Input
Amino acid sequence: MTGLPPSPGATPPPKKPWEFVDEVRRDADAMVADAARPRAPLRTRLPWLSLLLVVLVVLNVLEWRRPRVAPQAFTSAEEEASARFGIYLAQQAVIHYRDSAGRLPPSLAAAGLEGGDIAYHAADSIFTLEARVGPNVYAYRFGQDLTPFSGAYTTLRMATQP
Output
C-alpha cells in the first residue's frame, strides 16, 4: 500500500468477519432500543384518528353527492364551425374523387374520409352533405356557395389562438 486515497469507483477492501458481526450487532441493538422507546398510548391518539376518519367520510360523501357535469370541450360556435368546415373538406374530397374517377364516390370512406359525422347522399351527378350539431342540421348541396363552409376555418383558427 502506498498510502494514497482510493480512486473513485474502486471497491473498498473486504471487511473482516468480526467487523461484519459487530455491525449487525449494532443494528440489532438500535432496533431493540427503538422498539423499547415509549410511545403515546392509543387512548391519546384515538381522538385524532377518529376526527380524521370523520373528516374523510364527510369529504367522500360530499364528493359522491356532487352532481356530475361533463366538461364542455368546445363552445356551440366552435362545434358549428367544425361541422361546416367538415362539410367543406368532404366536398373537396368528393370533387377530387369525381375528377379522378369520373363518377361520384359510393361513400365518403371511398373518397378518403372515414369516421366523420357527415352524411353523404349521391344521386346521378348531384350529391348532398349533411352534418348535425345538436338540434341543428347543416347541409350542402352540390353547386351551392361554399363560402359559409370554407370560412368556418377562420372561426376554428381564432378559437385556438391564445
